[in-house]
Here is the input.
Amino acid sequence: MMKDPFGGIILNIAFRMLVPFSVVYAVYVLILGESSPGGGFQAGVVMGFGIVLARLILGEDTVQFNIQAKNSLALAGFGTFIYALAGWLTLFGGGKFLDYSFLPFTAEHAHELHALGILMIETGVTICVMMTILNIMDVLVRRSEDDGSVQ
Amino acid sequence: MQIYTIEALLLVFLIFITASIIYCRDILSSVYIYSAFSFCAVLLYLMMGSPDVAFTEVVVGTVSTIFYVISLKKIDRWCK
Amino acid sequence: MRGFVITVLALLTGLFCSSVTYLPTIGNPYSVPNQHITPVYIARSEIDTGSPNIVTGTLADYRGFDTMWETTVMFLSGLTATLILSKSTVGRRPEKEDDYE
Here is the structure.
């Protein structure tokens, strides 16, 4: 199904506008999620949607957007590890688990440490959600190509 | 008062859409009607004052529609 | 049997519709779930977490441990999808490979 790129000129041109917009918007949602609606889950889903769209339109053979299932699964675990790493860093700093005032970095005010901790865990959540979506997508597509039931 | 009218209309729409998802004979049509369900849910979330959940619902509705269509392609049932 | 099921369903629907009137209205500050710890969060969220968004402050700071296991659930869902759907050869007997398709 995804081996051959489908579309034509309209989808190709629209793809060139949509995918960079969705990725940049995902980064915006991630960074500005502390003071506006948004956050890690939303940023991850938007970024994963951009890459799923590129994968659907360009087909399987493009190297840039083709993330294998095992790599995406490992990266999803890495995102969860980043979240837990924030908690462990606060433990090493002498506080309780996920108490961002005790992050072992130098800052003038505790609010900066809180903002840094929140950004760190949101990055972890973003990587985990994005890679989970790409993983499910890749597994579904590969299965539908392999078992010969297509057309 | 008007906002309550629109909210009640959206809730009635949700009930009808859910019934039509269940009673539709074609699975692909059910998937497409499910995206309408997602749209009504987005408007309801916006009215209840939670743009976070509405944002998530927009994107998850889109991505889950793509996943459902790929799964339907996998089990080789496009149309009836 | 069908009449009995319809009767029970109608009874339950009437029960639910009558119990809707006892629910607190949306945005009522004096309802029970809005009086327990929500005023404390609203008052102290910006002081404690430094985040102007109360939702982010609650989700990532006050309830950080909860969100961590939520992320783990996401990862486990992807892992389960891979384990079920992928064509792995682990634990598969080679003489019956065609039967698994």
